[in-house]
Design a protein that fits this description.
binds adenosine-5'-triphosphate, binds magnesium ion, nucleotide-binding, AAA-ATPase ASD, mitochondrial-like, ATP hydrolysis activity, four-stranded antiparallel β-sheet, seven-stranded mixed β-sheet, magnesium, 51% helix, alpha/beta, 3 domains, Rossmann fold, Mitochondrial_chaperone_BCS1
Amino acid sequence: MMMRMGEMGPQLGSVIASVMFVCTIFRQYLPPQLRYYVDKYSHKLVKLFYPYIQITFDEYTTEFRKRSEVYSAIQSYLSTKSSTSARRLKAHDVKDSKSLVLGVDDNEEVTDEFQGIKLWWVLIKREPRQTSFSFYPQSDEKKHYKLTFHRRHRDVVTGAYLAHVIKEGKAITVGNRQRKLYINNPSRNWYTYRGKIWSHVVFEHPATFETLGLHPKKKEEIVNDLIKFSKGKEYYAKIGKAWKRGYLLYGPPGTGKSTMIAAMSNLMDYDVYDLELTTVKDNTELRKLLIDTPSKSIIVIEDIDCSLDLTGQRKKKKEKDEEENEENDPVKKKMEKEESQPSKVTLSGLLNFIDGIWSACGGERLIVFTTNYVDKLDPALIRRGRMDKHIELSYCCYEAFKVLARNYLDLESHELFETIERLLGETNMIPADVAENLMPKSVTENADSCLKKLIEALETAKEEARKKAEEEEASKKAEEEAKLKAEKEEKEKQQPAKDEVKCNGTSTKEEDAK
Ligand SMILES: Nc1ncnc2c1ncn2[C@@H]1O[C@H](COP(=O)(O)OP(=O)(O)OP(=O)(O)O)[C@@H](O)[C@H]1O
Ligand SMILES: [Mg+2]
């Protein structure tokens, strides 16, 4: 009997609620003295027959009418329960979610079990009483989840169970979440973007560590390092260090630095915050931007050598290109001019943030710097502890080529591999160029022709490198010869002068002798 009553818990509640409703109607016809006794005993009766507790969770918090995080977590948590137990489901697209979320339909009940305790969830929607015009339609509609359970489980439910629901729900939300690429807005546009200092787009870069053309040993080392970092919460807390890690990726253009950042984001499931330092006005703005980055994010500063020095060659080139394009547009020209105002971000400002207390807020952040010229960087920027790992991405080696051949042509081995191995040892080619040659350009192109194309390109590169070396050698020789010739001419010029001095000297001596 108890079992049956337990199972029909919330339904019993509706029956009792109806009885109470009838009592309330009758109550108003009773004299006041009697009303007191009716109230007292009806509550006792309800307590006796209805030993359940109900908790409600509103969709919007009363402060600032912000969507409640607890409500969202419950919604995600119940989406996994409801698809198996509820008969009426509702499909809806949750903000930032990559797939549709199945939820409980209004007033549909979902049962859950935790440590042998039975619980009932129901989503209750209250329609607005009167139709009113509003810019914010969701504010009129009130929704809440109602949780019902037996009162003897109060401690477990309010403690362990709710913590479990929120944790699970948040994990489901994170798993469903679409990753984003954030780009900082120049501060003069913050007003236009309604105070948003970062703009984002959905990040769907397909790069992974499997597809990255890199020596497998190096790849394994980096992947292990990243995984160790992601599991290092307790370790970092134990050693008293902020949970962050700095990577410096350096190497010539087209060697896969940006591709590796995308692979890192895909591996770790972190959002990418691409910080364009040249548009950051000063250190205060930099601080604002960094404080606004949450945990589980990768903060990227590309071409750090050019970012802190606005005379950097890339920036120069970009400006020149843009100037050519917008020559006749005065408005754009003005904006360009404003934009090209030198950033006042200083190296010390940047270092302060990397090392400073900010880095401990939220934790779990990767900071990645890239550069083509590692030697140009200030040693203060790349010292250990600041940039924990230095990764060199260089010309394509044979092992990296094998990864690319597997990706692009599904080839594990081929008779031409030997030739390619030899040529890669003899000449430098960036992975971007190797990849470009391996990519079939038409339906008629097969693996054989792609490999031959690569061999041809490698031979051309080798030939060009040889010619260049020869030319350099020749110009060096010519320079040396010219130098020698100039020295000789100088000597010859000085010779008659000396002779003259000598003659004069002799004549003087002669004169003296006389
Ligand atoms: N190691 C690599 N493995 C696979 N593809 C690569 C690799 N390196 C470069 N590529 C290919 O070349 C293109 C350019 O690479 P990427 O932008 O990562 O180079 P980068 O090192 O960031 O260059 P830059 O210094 O100019 O920013 C990418 O689209 C990618 O497909
Ligand atoms: Mg790049």
